[in-house]
Specification:
mainly beta; Elongation Factor Tu (Ef-tu), domain 3; Double Stranded RNA Binding Domain; 2 domains; 6-stranded antiparallel β-barrel; 4-stranded antiparallel sheet; 3 helices; about 10% helix
Length: about 210
Amino acid sequence: MFKGLLGKKLGMTQVFDEEGAAYPVTLLEAGPCFVTQVRTTQKDGYSAVQLGYGEVQAKKLSGGELGHLVTKKLPAMRYLREFRSKGAEVKVGDKVDVSQFEIGKRVDVIGISKGKGFAGNMKRHHFKGGPATHGQSDRARGPGSISSTTTPGRVYLGKRMAGHMGNQRVSSQNIKVILIDAEKNLLAVNGSVPGPRGGLVMIKEARKQ
């Protein structure tokens, strides 16, 4: 059965169980979402469910996006994302919400990590830097040699160097659902999830549980 939702990160807090144990949790506003498309192996070559989330004014969408939704008699939605699913028991126009998840079960939460701009090797890749003594004065936070002059005579692709840090797709896997509030469309999961407050997240059934 298909289990997936789009939502946004609200922030972190803590909740207590019946025995008084505290759990650090991230609150997510999950759904409600509409099924905007169902892809099948016979027609598209793979199976997936496309969800729409976040109703907005129609003028804020492109013509293609708006036409994709209007022909299915769905409201204008800001976000459209696909979830891979085998034998999904949903159809276009269905409304899905947090009630499909259960307390105690495990989920994967996918988001875009916070962008931190240009960063050096020590911050970005946890390099230890150069020596602090023996005459060194201007290479304390430098990366050291990045290649040799003979073999290979070039810098390999993927070499860890300074550059743009963050702003990448990150998955928090196998995290526990602590609380569900279907009336307020709230989902609380144990621990942290990627992204800033208000950032879009994809929530789906854990693959590695």
